Structure formats: structure tokens, C-alpha cells
């Protein structure tokens, strides 16, 4: 893949109203454009249906262009990526409730949307494409069993670190192929122990059922691009404070 080229380059971000993509847009917006092969785009096209909050970012009026795009409609996608030097494809369907048929409701539209983006980028001669593939857990992470919680091990990563990784993959001319973006393998009980030290007043589960599900992942390839990640304690603290600020948790 070639690197993004000029100081007047334009990049498009699909699903920009989503959690991860919003952080990416914020990061792109705060990165000063420069006339180098690794320049941040000088204009950012944000594609999605719920992106009005992005215009509240400082300087958004100067560098952001909002476009409503149906990722499953090829012609809609083609219009959004036309003229772009680079594209970040972050959009993917996320069910708001129970998903009885994940193959049809999640996987199929995700594949169709990704193929539409890749085809549109190829036809538009986009120089650099970064695609984010999320992990969808089709079962509950925490399962109550006889008044106990499964002490599962899970791979976690801070959304801000993922946004950093996407930008690194875009800016670094040597970046190619697939990258695993995971910071921490940690058990549910260890997460709770960290939260207890930060917020001792909350109620936490006391009984756990051990589950042997350890799966390790190697992020060395991504780290060679210069990627690093935040400590889990920082991620948990900032998450709780965010929930509090939004009224999702009692102080």
C-alpha cells in the first residue's frame, strides 16, 4: 500500500458516529496536517447517520465534512470515498439488543459493507485503506452460576489505543497486512480487584467459578510501528469516570 501523500489530502472515516470511530475522528482532527508522506489528512469526511456530535469538536468546521452513507449501498459508499487519499473503514453493525441470528444480523452485513468499501476504494484509486475488524462475542462474558461469576480471561484494549493504532497504520508507509490490537489479557476477578482499589464503595461479586479459557495474542507487529497501550488501571478509571459524567453510574 502507498502512503497518503499531500498536505491537501482527504480521508474518509466510515461509521464515524460510533464509539471507536468518534475517537479516531477526534485524533485525526487534532493531528496537524503536514506536507510529508505520513501527513494527517487536511480534510476528513465522516460517514454515518449519528455524527452531529463530531461538529462540536474544536476546529471541526474547518476540517470535517459530514456525509450520510448507507454502507450496504455501494453507490452511496462510492460517493463518500471519491477524491480521498485514504479511507478508514470502522463501520460495522452492532445489535442494540438480543441477536438471535448473528450470522444474518451481524456477520453478513459486515462482510457486505466491507466489500463495498474495498471495491469503492479500488475504483476511486484510494492510496491507503485501513480496515478495523472488531471481535463480536456471541455469548455473555459474565455468566451467573449458582450465585457466582465465571472468572473468565478476556483480551481488552482501550478505545483510545485502538484509535492510535489505526492512525499509525495509516501514517506509516511500511504498514501492511493484519495487526492485532490487544493490550491486556486479564481475568474478571483481577478487573474487580483493580476496581475495588479505585472505587471501594461499590458492591462487587464475591464468588467466582474458574474457567480455563486463556487465549494469548501477540501484538509485536503492531508495537514495531510504535504502538503502545495504556495501563488497565487507567482504562478502568477513565471508563468509570466517563459513565459517571454521563449519568450512567452513581457517584
TrEMBL record:
It holds the Pfam family Epimerase. The keyword Lyase does not apply. Residues 13-130 form the NAD-dependent epimerase/dehydratase domain. It comes from the Eukaryota. Keywords: Oxidoreductase. GO terms for molecular function: oxidoreductase activity, acting on the CH-OH group of donors, NAD or NADP as acceptor. InterPro entries: Epimerase_deHydtase, NAD(P)-bd_dom_sf, NAD(P)_dehydrat-like. PANTHER family: NAD DEPENDENT EPIMERASE/DEHYDRATASE (PTHR10366), NAD-DEPENDENT EPIMERASE_DEHYDRATASE DOMAIN-CONTAINING PROTEIN (PTHR10366:SF831). This is NAD-dependent epimerase/dehydratase domain-containing protein. It comes from Dichanthelium oligosanthes. The lineage of its organism: Eukaryota, Viridiplantae, Streptophyta, Embryophyta, Tracheophyta.
Amino acid at each position: 500500500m502507498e502512503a497518503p501523500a499531500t498536505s491537501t489530502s482527504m480521508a474518509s472515516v466510515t461509521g464515524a458516529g460510533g464509539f471507536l470511530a468518534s475517537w479516531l475522528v477526534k485524533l485525526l482532527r487534532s493531528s496537524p496536517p503536514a506536507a510529508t508522506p505520513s501527513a494527517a489528512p487536511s480534510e476528513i469526511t465522516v460517514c454515518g447517520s449519528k455524527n452531529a456530535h463530531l461538529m462540536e469538536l474544536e476546529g471541526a468546521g474547518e476540517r470535517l465534512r459530514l456525509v450520510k452513507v448507507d454502507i450496504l449501498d455501494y453507490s452511496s459508499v462510492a460517493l463518500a470515498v471519491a477524491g480521498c487519499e485514504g479511507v478508514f473503514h470502522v463501520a460495522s453493525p452492532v445489535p442494540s439488543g438480543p441477536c438471535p441470528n448473528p450470522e444474518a444480523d451481524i456477520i453478513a452485513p459486515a462482510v457486505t459493507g466491507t466489500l463495498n468499501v474495498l471495491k469503492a476504494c479500488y475504483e476511486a484509486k484510494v492510496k491507503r485503506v485501513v480496515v478495523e475488524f472488531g471481535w463480536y462475542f456471541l455469548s455473555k462474558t459474565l455468566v451467573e452460576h449458582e450465585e457466582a461469576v465465571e472468572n473468565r480471561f478476556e483480551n481488552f484494549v482501550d478505545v483510545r489505543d485502538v484509535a492510535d493504532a489505526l492512525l499509525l497504520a495509516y501514517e506509516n508507509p511500511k504498514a501492511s497486512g493484519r495487526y492485532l490490537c490487544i493490550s491486556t489479557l486479564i481475568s474478571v476477578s483481577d478487573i474487580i480487584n483493580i476496581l475495588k482499589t479505585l472505587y471501594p464503595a461499590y458492591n462487587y461479586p464475591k464468588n467466582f467459578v474458574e474457567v480455563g479459557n486463556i487465549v494469548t495474542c501477540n501484538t509485536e507487529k503492531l508495537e514495531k510501528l510504535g504502538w503502545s497501550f495504556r495501563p488497565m488501571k487507567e482504562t478502568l478509571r477513565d471508563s468509570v469516570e466517563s459513565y459517571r459524567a454521563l449519568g450512567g453510574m452513581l457517584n
